Amino acid sequence: MPTCLGYLLPTREKIxxxxxxxxxxxxxxxxxxxxxxxxxxxxxxxxxxPRHEPLTLMTAIAARLKxxxxxxxxxxxxxxxxxxxxxxxxxxxxxxEGRLILGVGxxxxxxxxxAEFIAAGVPFEKRVGRMxxxxxxxxxxxxxxxxxxxxxxxxxGAVLGxxxxxxxxxxxxxxxxxxxxxxRAGRHFDGWMPIAPDAAQxxxxxxxxxxxxxxxxxxxxxxxxxMYLNIVLDDDARRANDKLDHFLxxxxxxxxxxxxxxxxxxxxxxxxxxxxxxxxxxxxCSHLVLRFTGDHERNLETIAGLRxxxx
Length: 311
Description:
Elements: E1 4-8, H1 11-16, H2 23-34, E2 39-42, H3 54-64, E3 69-75, H4 82-95, E4 100-104, H5 111-119, H6 127-142, E5 147-150, E6 154-158, E7 172-174, H7 179-188, E8 191-192, H8 199-215, E9 224-233, H9 237-252, H10 256-262, E10 265-268, H11 270-282, E11 287-292, H12 296-305
């Protein structure tokens, strides 16, 4: 089965540039679909990294485009009431006619993200348990059957309508590559979408996730392995790396040397990017989520032209 190519919309970058209009973003999504990309991805943040609200924007994309999948890379479900989120996601999946993927994560432990949780009235230290319980509650509500729930949230005989287009709800993919994240991915989720490991480590961790899934009595072959990657294409490798460093520092407000240990990226000529991506594919990665650091139209065209070389 061919590797799926996903494209991350530059919602954060547009806000940083003072360009909040959504029409150019929708046009980029449409261009990616025309060029053969398989999915459009949108990030999530309130104040730490201001950007468009992902579910609203994805609904517009899903209504306009009829082939590509739409997904969050990644949503922070702990910031959301799961009953309301289940309703929003179900409606979005109906608009998308079952093409929705919900990538989720717990967020990095940095001051501006902690402040974001405080602003939303959510205890940061409880975010993992809140995410896992909230997702279980959402899945129960997506069944369309009466739900009784006595936990962080109290639900009595509630029936959600509409339910998602996809029976049981959209697949849930989780980020993270630390040991606890690997354990969660194997036990509880439908897919894995990290940002940190190099290709060799990605393959080792992916095998570990599948072993954990089998030990838990799950169908490991049904899980999806993906990877979120930064891409800078420039014939001058030094200039490409300078561009990536500048992008990461402007985006996150942290030193590039620190960030490049947490996020994988390719910076160099287009002639080498397909083989670099194939290192992940050979390790079992079947969905590549690509974030460009600029020149989106040109980069979309370039990657589309290399599609046959990405096995």
